[in-house]
């Protein structure tokens, strides 16, 4: 793919991802509400919420939270731009974990009890999903001989054919990344639980707004990785990728609404077992037939 | 050809200074004299390394071989050295009633002497060989080693005056051992003669032993003897390997050993030629504290911090890695290579699990040292240009950042009275300088964009290229757990606190050394792309006879971009956030906050203090729980594979 096209796609990501992410969250709320037999807020509610957050008074527990959150967002945007710009997938995932580290800093710098516990759980979550994330990159490398996203989307057929196990493992850890039950250990969308709001307890106003927007970026990034499994040379694969993305998103909503929160040990064990059995066995097969 | 005898200077000069260190008596006035001599000799050593590097560059960075003939006197001197070591070890093992340990020293000494006098060594080979790899090691030992000695001068003062007043002050002895070690380390990395290598190997083992036992407390003595026997066991394997190789080929050269094994691979002689390589690799595993020998390095943490930084993290344990790098072209694709790679990868994974459970700062550093050495060992075992590239960078970054972290934790302990990570809560507000440098050191160990990460990238890629699926898993899971224990430490440092600032009793020389390390860490990160083009790629060409472009240009540009991004964005947003008008509030406690964010009023109306703590999972991942099973597994693998290698030869 041409360099300038890649830059344009990356810029499109930077500009459009928050809108798409916000819309998806709006749909999420609406669908969740219907699953719970409520009517639910309008689709655009997330945008109203975030706009309101930015208009609120700037209340902080610790001033450093702000710059750490801004760095978190900037790194998250960079991660997404790297993916959509077609660069090296493994480097992209490394920047992703650095971004997550900044979120951890933003939480632990406050010295607030709920935030700190949330932050510790966030760390456990990072440790839990990282093997599956890295293995996804490894899987692409074995399947096509390159870590570059631009090469991956240029393949002759959808790589999910070769790597269904990796796909399953990645979708599995997306539940953690999207903070859906049963893996919403570090923070949840409701403040009435044992952790209050966990890692975001001390974030308000502008800071919480930044956090929300970053979540949107992150969701689009994750869906972008899912799309990598589907995309190929054929332009129609873009449509297929969008459909698969929507299906995956719906499944995550369904999982989130039909499960109760797990303990971290169960999450760690389950995820690592799924990673090993699904992505690991897939990798073994790929290496053997290579 | 070299006209100035700079190599003998590097080896002998520290030994002379060591003698001076010992004879200067212990009183405040004489201490000042000794400190001054220590400073001057450190500068001299650094200058000498600089001259060596300059001469090597002036010679077109070509390998230099020195002293191939007329070295009877020096050879005899090494035998005398062997005997002195043997006497020291025997004396101490009788004094502390560990009689059997002296056998591990007596047998190799006599065997090496016999080899030298028996006439089996027929071919004269250069005793000294200088190439990219030895220059790199010299730079690490010269620069980091000297800085640590400068740090040690201030540290040992604080050690005896504030922290360990009951320990007998034997600073003259301490500095003597440090300088002997420096000389031996230079000798080790510059020698090509296997018998010389064996001597310097044993000297470093004994230095480590003497420094661990510095305080003469029961636990220190126990740990020092554990380190001694494990390292001497490695020395025995080394000796057997040397004798086998000399008896088959009549040569006494490390480079000869590698090329012999490389050429013999695939021929009927191949199975036999690999046995000395395997034995020396086994010795290197003990020195690099790989499983099942990792416990000696953990025990070594009772030693004063400068010796932990110098011997047990930055340089001596790297001697094992250095030897493995040398052997790696011969090990590539053999059972020996697989054995080394497996042990390294397994150690990387398990040590990082155990590190999660540690709250003692030095123990975390020790476990992460073992873990990172494991990754380097795995790189050497796989033995492709890509993995060695990754291994070299791991070594450089690890040396700088661990040396920084050990010194920093040591200085923190002197000021804070504790090196427990839980007590470092809010250290950034209590000991700002030390906490800031600690932050840089830890970030250098695992965060993007520092070099550790890009090395992991290269290792991961080559383990897939080699179709080594077990290695791939070990690297992936190991790097997940590595991030966990480092990140939670960082979180402790930056957490807000109302505790009073601590009086920073760190001496200026300690601060200078720490600051230089921190600057070096950031510089290395920025200069890494240049370093790989100008130094590491020629090194690989020298080692493998072909250049390999490990880092594609696209990754290089990306890396530079990420570096700028990660450094610049937080700074800009920090500056911007300072101007914002903020309404500061207390944090939510689900009870009444007492007003200072460090306590709350509970439902009975009592004030409670708030303490925040990290997760450690000590009952699941502790040393007691994991160490023995790990040792058993790795021991089983080692025994089986060594038996396969040796059995295959006959």
UniProtKB/TrEMBL annotation, chain A:
Membrane keyword on record: yes
Topological relation to the membrane, as annotated: Multi-pass membrane protein
One term under GO cellular component: plasma membrane
Any Pfam family hit: NADHdh
Transmembrane segments: 6-27, 65-84, 90-110, 131-150, 156-176, 216-232, 238-255, 267-289
Location(s) in or outside the cell: Membrane
Domain of life: Bacteria
Keyword field: Membrane, Transmembrane, Transmembrane helix
InterPro entries to which the protein is assigned, alphabetical: ComplexI_Subunit1, NADH_UbQ_OxRdtase_su1/FPO
Name the record gives this protein: NADH-quinone oxidoreductase subunit H
Organism name: Candidatus Weimeria bifida
């Amino acid at each position: 793919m041409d360099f300038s096209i890649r830059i344009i796609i990356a810029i499109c990501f930077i500009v459009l991802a928050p809108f798409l992410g916000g819309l998806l969250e709006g749909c999420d709320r609406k669908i969740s509400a219907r699953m719970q037999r409520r009517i639910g807020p309008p689709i655009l509610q997330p945008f109203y919420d975030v706009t309101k957050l930015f208009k609120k008074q700037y209340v902080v527990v610790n001033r450093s939270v702000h710059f750490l959150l801004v760095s978190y967002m900037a790194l998250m945007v960079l991660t997404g731009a790297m993916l959509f710009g077609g660069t090296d997938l493994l480097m992209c995932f490394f920047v992703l974990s650095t971004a997550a580290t900044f979120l951890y800093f933003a939480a632990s710098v406050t010295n607030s009890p709920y935030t700190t516990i949330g932050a510790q759980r966030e760390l456990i979550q990072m440790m839990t999903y990282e093997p599956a994330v890295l293995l996804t990159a490894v899987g692409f490398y074995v399947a096509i001989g390159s870590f570059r996203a631009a090469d991956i989307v240029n393949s002759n057929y959808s790589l999910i054919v070769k790597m269904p196990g990796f796909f399953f493992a990645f979708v599995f850890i997306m539940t953690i990344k999207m903070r859906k039950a049963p893996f919403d250990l570090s923070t949840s969308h409701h403040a009435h639980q044992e952790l209050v709001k966990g890692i975001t307890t001390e974030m308000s106003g502008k800071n919480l707004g930044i956090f929300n927007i970053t979540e949107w970026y992150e969701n689009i990034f994750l869906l972008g990785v899912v799309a990598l499994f589907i995309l190929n040379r054929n332009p129609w694969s873009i449509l297929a990728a969008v459909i698969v993305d929507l299906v995956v998103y719906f499944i995550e909503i369904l999982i989130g609404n039909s499960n109760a929160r797990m303990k971290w040990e169960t999450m760690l064990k389950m995820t690592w077992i799924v990673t090993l059995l699904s992505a690991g066995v897939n990798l073994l097969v790929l290496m053997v037939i290579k | 050809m070299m006209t100035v005898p700079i190599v003998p200077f590097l080896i002998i000069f520290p030994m002379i200074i060591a003698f001076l260190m010992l004879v200067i008596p212990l009183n405040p006035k004489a201490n000042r004299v000794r400190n001054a001599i220590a400073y001057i000799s450190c500068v001299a050593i650094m200058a000498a390394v600089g001259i060596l590097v300059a001469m090597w560059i002036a010679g077109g960075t070509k390998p230099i071989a020195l002293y191939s003939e007329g070295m009877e006197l020096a050879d005899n001197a090494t035998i005398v050295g062997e005997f002195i070591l043997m006497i020291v070890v025997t004396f101490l093992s009788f004094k502390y009633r560990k009689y059997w340990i002296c056998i591990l020293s007596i047998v190799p000494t006599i065997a090496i002497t016999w080899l030298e006098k028996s006439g089996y060594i027929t071919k004269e080979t250069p005793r000294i060989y200088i190439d990219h790899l030895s220059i790199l090691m010299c730079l690490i030992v010269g620069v980091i080693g000297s800085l640590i000695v400068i740090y040690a001068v201030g540290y040992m003062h604080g050690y005896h005056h504030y922290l360990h007043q009951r320990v007998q002050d034997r600073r003259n002895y301490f500095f003597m051992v440090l300088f002997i070690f420096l000389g031996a380390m230079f000798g080790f990395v510059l020698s090509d003669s296997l018998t010389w290598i064996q001597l310097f190997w044993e000297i470093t083992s004994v230095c480590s032993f003497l420094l661990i036992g510095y305080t003469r407390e029961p636990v220190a003595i126990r740990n020092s003897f554990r380190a001694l026997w494990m390292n001497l066991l490695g020395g025995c394997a080394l000796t057997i390997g040397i004798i086998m190789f000399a008896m088959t080929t009549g040569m006494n050269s490390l480079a000869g050993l590698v090329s012999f094994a490389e050429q013999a691979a695939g021929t009927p002689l191949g199975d036999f030629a690999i046995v000395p390589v395997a034995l020396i690799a086994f010795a290197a595993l003990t020195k690099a504290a790989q499983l099942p020998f990792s416990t000696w390095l953990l025990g070594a943490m009772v030693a004063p911090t400068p010796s932990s930084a110098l011997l047990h993290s930055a340089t001596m344990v790297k001697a094992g890695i250095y030897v493995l790098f040398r052997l790696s072209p011969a090990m590539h694709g053999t059972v020996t290579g697989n054995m080394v790679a497996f042990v390294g990868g397994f150690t990387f994974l398990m040590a990082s699990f155990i590190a999660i459970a540690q709250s003692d700062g030095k123990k975390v550093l020790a476990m992460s040292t073992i873990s990172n050495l494991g990754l380097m060992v795995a790189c050497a075992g796989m033995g492709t240009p890509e993995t060695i590239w990754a291994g070299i960078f791991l070594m450089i970054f690890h040396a700088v950042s661990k040396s920084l972290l050990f010194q920093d934790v040591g200085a923190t302990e002197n000021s804070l009275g504790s090196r427990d990570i839980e007590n470092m809560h809010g250290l950034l507000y209590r000991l700002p300088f030390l906490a800031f440098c600690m932050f840089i050191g830890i970030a250098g160990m695992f965060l993007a964009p520092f070099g550790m990460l890009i090395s992991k990238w290269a290792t991961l890629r080559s383990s897939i290229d080699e179709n080594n699926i077990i290695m791939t898993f070990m690297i992936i899971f190991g790097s997940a757990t590595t991030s966990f224990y480092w990140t939670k430490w960082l979180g402790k440092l930056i957490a807000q606190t109302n505790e009073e600032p601590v009086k920073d009793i760190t001496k200026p020389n300690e601060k200078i050394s720490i600051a230089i390390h921190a600057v070096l860490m950031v510089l290395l990160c920025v200069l890494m792309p240049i370093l790989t083009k100008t130094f590491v790629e020629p090194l690989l060409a020298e080692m493998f006879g072909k250049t390999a472009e490990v880092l594609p240009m696209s990754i290089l540009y990306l890396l530079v971009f990420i570096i700028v991004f990660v450094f610049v964005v937080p700074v800009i947003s920090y500056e911007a956030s300072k101007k914002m008008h903020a309404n500061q509030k207390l944090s939510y406690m689900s009870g009444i906050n007492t007003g200072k964010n460090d306590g709350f009023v509970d439902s009975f109306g009592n004030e409670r203090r708030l303490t925040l703590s990290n997760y450690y999972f000590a009952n699941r991942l502790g040393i007691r729980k994991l160490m023995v099973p790990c040792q058993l597994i790795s021991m089983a693998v080692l025994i089986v594979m060594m038996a396969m290698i040796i059995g295959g030869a006959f």
